[in-house]
Amino acid sequence: MSVIDQNSRPLSGIRVLDFTTMMAGPYCTRQLADMGAEVIKVENPNGGEQNRNAVPVREGHSAVYAQLNAGKNSVAIDLKSTDGVAIALDLASHCDIVVENSRPGVMARLGLDCKAIREVRPDIIYCSISGFGQTGPSAMNAAFAPVVQADSGYELENMKQQPELTKPGHVGIFFADVMAGVQAFGAISTALFSRTQTGHGQYIDVSLLESMMWFMVYELQLSQNPSDTPRGLYQPVKTSDGFLMVAPGNQTTFEAMAKSMGHPEWIEDSRFQDHEDRSRNYSAMISLIETWTITKSASVCEEILLEGKVPCARYREVSDLFDHPQLIHREAFTKTIDPSGEIKVPNQPFKFDGSETDARNWVEPLGKSTPEILKKLLDFQDEKIKDLRENKIIL
Asked: Which helix H or strand E contains 344, and what residues bound it?
């Protein structure tokens, strides 16, 4: 098992039993690992969880798996066997938190649901993450993030904001998974604090669908309270070599933009006198802005406007982030190591002034921690571990 000093991390001393796969669950438990929790990831001995094969793959090892599972201990147990379930229950009795993101009912059929685990650890904090929640008419529906995003209203709302689209856009970024993972992390952290006050654990039911609702603050309210005031949608403008986002969101920034672009006359233009006027004439304003930006590179536009205190940013490729001066200053990435070598993964987007919260710098091969964990927590002897391996209960 990888050895690391956890004492300076906020959740040092907390132990997590992680049954999660794919993205939402591992996203949550990666955050717990960064906070210092000892995360014991339970995987199928036959190949491990699905993301171990997710592209891109480097020398047989998934970079996606590495990002989502840095700093976790991998234990490979056959949960379809009676002995495997018994081992998992014994491990749960030594843990503070259990996280799973199977379809509702799966953990109960295995004998590893919250009810079963409370028999061995009454104050457990048990978090279930699913597409639509554990109960209700849609609870048993198959759910991947693109399906949930379609069901949530988000994709049609996004289409309405892209007038060039005639149907919803392709889905390649899984907001629903990420949002559910973040919500689960927050709920678990709250439940841990609650347990210090009451001594009681919590069962936490996280829904991807309901997590998506938190993306749509204006949209949810406008759907209930229609308004005649147009909502100006921020639009990119072309530069000589790319695109720029300029956000003159109030009178002060609009005037600063007009002056920075050398067009103070825009300030007196009747179409742009206040926020409502600019919203009604947003396309005309964008056209004027573009007559200035198209003559310059995106980086030059950005430099001039930022000097004038105008909110703006040039559109960057994801690959540009590794050289982004602000992210370098913030130490936003950590180099972690899997069996194929080093890879950069993001740290948490927050800093503590008295604790470490950066990503761990190691990713375990499938089942690497199995013997160490079973010896440390369950006092298994070498002979028993050998017998379990020969019977394919563990890896």
From this structure: strand 341-346
**Environment class of residue 1 by beta-carbon count within 10 Å: exposed (0-12), middle (13-18) or buried (19+)?**
middle
CA dist 37 and 42 (Å) reads: 15
Pick the closest to residue 219 from 155, 278, 173 (CA basis): 155
DSSP 270: G
Of 127, 258, 241, which Cα lies nearest the Cα of 182? 127
Where are the chain's structural domains?
A: 15-216+331-390, 243-314
Cis peptide before 56, with omega less than 30 degrees from 0? yes
**What is the helix, strand, coil percentage profile of the chain, to 5?**
45, 15, 40
The third-level CATH classification (topology) of the domain covering 243-314 is formyl-coa transferase, domain 3 (3.30.1540)
Fold category of 15-216+331-390 in CATH: Rossmann fold (3.40.50)
Phi and psi dihedrals of 341, rounded to 5?
125, -160
Question: Which residues, in sequence order, are CB contacts of 223 under 8 Å at separation 6+?
Answer: none
Amino acid at 248: P
* Tokens representing residue 94 in the block: 């030594």
pTM of the predicted structure, to 2 decimals: 0.94
pLDDT tens-place values along the chain, 395 residues long: 444 444 689 999 999 999 999 999 999 999 999 999 999 999 999 999 999 999 999 999 999 999 999 999 999 999 999 999 999 999 999 999 999 999 999 999 999 999 999 999 999 999 999 999 999 999 999 999 999 999 999 999 999 999 899 999 999 999 999 999 999 999 999 999 999 999 999 999 999 999 999 999 999 999 999 988 777 789 999 999 999 999 998 999 999 999 999 999 999 999 999 988 998 899 899 999 999 999 999 999 999 999 999 999 999 999 999 999 999 999 999 999 999 999 999 999 999 999 999 999 999 999 999 999 999 999 999 999 999 999 999 99
β-pair partners for 267 = none
Residue type, 166: T
Nearest to 99 by CA among 206, 195, 219, 200: 206
Q: How many whole angstroms separate alpha carbon 297 and alpha carbon 56?
A: 32
